[in-house]
Fold this sequence. Notes:
The protein has about 180 residues and is mainly α. It is about 70% helix and about 0% strand.
Amino acid sequence: MQSRGEAVARLRGCAVGALSGAIAIAAHGAAGGGMPPGQAAIVALLLACTATGAAVASARITELVLPILIVVVAAGQLVGHATLALTSVHSHGLQLSPAMLGAHAAATVVAAILIRGGERACAAAFAAIARIAVAILTPLRVHTPLWVRTPGTRRARALELLVGAADGTRGPPVLA
């Protein structure tokens, strides 16, 4: 069973990898990147973003999470932009126009904030699920005394039945 920190790290890696690729394509196109990328560019971008996400998932980040996320997503954007620029049919080189730089920068900050919010929501959900599981799976404590006193009316009825069963004509003759 993995710890909560490992699950959050995997979530962070998946989000960084996926958002790096998606935002690279969106920011590239929004800033006048030209034609949509071809199949070779998409495959290369997918491999680059998968490697970026795997690297982020393996890192144990505990402090300064948001600034580190901004740097990592920016690196993923740089990798994505370079991949698209080198493998696309159109070639504008590795130059970044001010519009493209602004689109990448804005997308990077928004993505880092969303990833951090997702991490916190995931941690809160894990904590809630753990509390619910503990509440459901914990056996109830039932107070059971070792000795139970029999009520007086029941005792009297049992004695009456026992004595009443001796009345009758059955049995050996009585010697007087």
